[in-house]
């Protein structure tokens, strides 16, 4: 038995060695068929229109002061406004100082001195203003921003001074300018002379500054047209933004995106990180990106707004004509940045929970966009228009008094705008007066002179 066992072991060992050689040869001569994994297909966003920050920060109006309580106003559709905006990069400001003036001096500058007032809809950070004009010296960094730049001629010194005014902060500073009295008088004021005459309205502060000798009040001022004007009521068709364009604009790898339907018919597109909430009844979206990257250095307001502009440029772009409106802090210390849509010189206002096509609103943290709300309505083709005769300032005030809508002494601002009304296949733009009141809801009043008993909207 032992004699047979040893030869068997030898034979088995030889077979194993032979099998090992055969397998080695097979592995050596036969390569596996590799399956190459295709890289993720990144889709480049296709913005409709890109804009630079300077294109989005524009004055709301330019007011020309001629003395003897004569004032005119130009808006963005007027040639004198365009001329002033073209001239602004040439303006040089130097020798900045904090400035305090009495009621008497205010009245002299506002009512009697030749001047020019560049007005913004809300507070613009000074670092952004510095991109529209030229600062030669350091300014008072305690002022965060301004809503008015007021040039005035001081005859005794033969100098054109500039006042930088912040209604929000109740502060001002003064500087010398490179503007010659001749340019102010013969160029700027001459151009503005044919513009519509305005009534200056002074917003009285809560404190009675006039009773305080040598006090330094801050005059908040707005203007109303002395005479009736003309505006068009428009109807436009629009093109809704498709889901495909949304996917291209907001998601890097579309193959990862899944769709979720909520009970209220809200549709959510998400790739597991970013998401878009689509409210079809309002034709608007809310984009959310929870990713948060801590920045080592504090960003300026200019850098924050620039970051928002860059984000919109790369994600669907500017569907229509928008302008920067404001930046402010939220309750949780995030930055809220708003851009408002315009048609010509007039801002859009959406009321009563209708489709919100008037603004793009961004929330950013350390300069990174975390949420954005915007409309999906892209105005397309003009359909029709109707000319309106618009109430003058005195007529507006008289109507408010006659209908006992508000105490006109409480009005802090009044301006013309377009109320938007989005229906199935078109958008109506109706001229309205927006009347802001101290500590009361804003009123929205149809602007035509024959509106009679038309409905007045009041919203917070």
From TrEMBL:
Organism: Brevibacillus reuszeri
Name recorded for this polypeptide: Transcriptional regulator
Pfam family, one: YycH
Occurrences of domain Regulatory protein YycH (ranges): 7-441
Gene3D superfamilies documented for this protein: YycH protein, domain 2
Transmembrane segments annotated in the record for this chain: none
């Amino acid at each position: 038995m032992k004699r047979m066992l040893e030869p068997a072991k030898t034979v088995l060992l030889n077979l194993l060695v032979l099998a090992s050689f055969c397998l080695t040869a097979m592995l050596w001569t036969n390569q596996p068929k590799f399956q190459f994994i295709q890289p993720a297909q990144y889709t480049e966003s296709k913005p409709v229109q890109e804009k630079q920050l300077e294109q989005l920060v524009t004055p709301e109006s330019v007011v020309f002061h001629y003395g003897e309580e004569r004032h005119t106003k130009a808006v963005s559709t007027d040639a004198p406004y365009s001329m002033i905006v073209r001239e602004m990069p040439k303006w040089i400001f130097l020798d900045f100082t904090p400035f305090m003036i009495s009621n008497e001096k205010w009245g002299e500058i506002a009512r009697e001195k030749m001047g020019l007032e560049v007005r913004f809809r809300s507070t613009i950070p000074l670092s952004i203003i510095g991109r529209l004009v030229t600062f030669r010296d350091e300014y008072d960094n305690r002022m965060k921003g301004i809503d008015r730049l007021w040039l005035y001629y001081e005859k005794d010194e033969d100098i054109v001074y500039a006042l930088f005014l912040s209604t929000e902060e109740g502060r001002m500073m003064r500087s010398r300018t490179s503007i010659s009295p001749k340019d102010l008088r013969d160029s700027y004021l001459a151009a503005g002379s044919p513009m519509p005459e305005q009534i200056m309205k002074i917003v009285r502060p809560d404190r009675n500054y006039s009773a305080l000798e040598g006090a330094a009040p801050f005059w908040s001022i707005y203007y109303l047209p002395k005479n009736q004007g003309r505006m068009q009521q428009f109807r436009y068709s629009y093109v809704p933004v498709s889901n495909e364009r949304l996917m291209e604009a907001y998601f890097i790898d579309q193959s990862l995106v899944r769709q979720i339907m909520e009970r209220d018919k809200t549709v959510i597109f998400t790739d597991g990180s970013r998401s878009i909430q689509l409210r079809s009844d309002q034709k608007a979206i809310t984009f959310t990106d929870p990713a948060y990257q801590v920045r080592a250095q504090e960003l300026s307001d200019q850098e924050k707004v620039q970051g928002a502009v860059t984000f919109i440029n790369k994600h669907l772009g500017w569907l229509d004509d928008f302008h920067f409106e404001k930046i402010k802090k939220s309750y949780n210390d995030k930055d809220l940045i708003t851009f408002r849509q315009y048609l010509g010189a007039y801002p859009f206002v959406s009321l009563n929970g209708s489709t919100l096509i008037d603004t793009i609103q961004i929330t950013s943290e350390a300069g990174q966009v975390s949420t954005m709300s915007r409309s999906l309505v892209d105005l397309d083709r003009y359909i029709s228009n109707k000319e309106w005769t618009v109430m003058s300032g005195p007529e507006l005030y008289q109507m408010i008094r006659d209908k006992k809508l508000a105490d006109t002494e409480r009005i802090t601002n009044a301006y013309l705008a377009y109320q938007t009304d989005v229906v199935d296949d078109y958008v109506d733009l109706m001229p309205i007066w927006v009347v802001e009141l101290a500590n009361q809801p804003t009123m929205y009043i149809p602007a035509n002179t024959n509106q009679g008993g038309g409905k007045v909207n009041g919203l917070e």
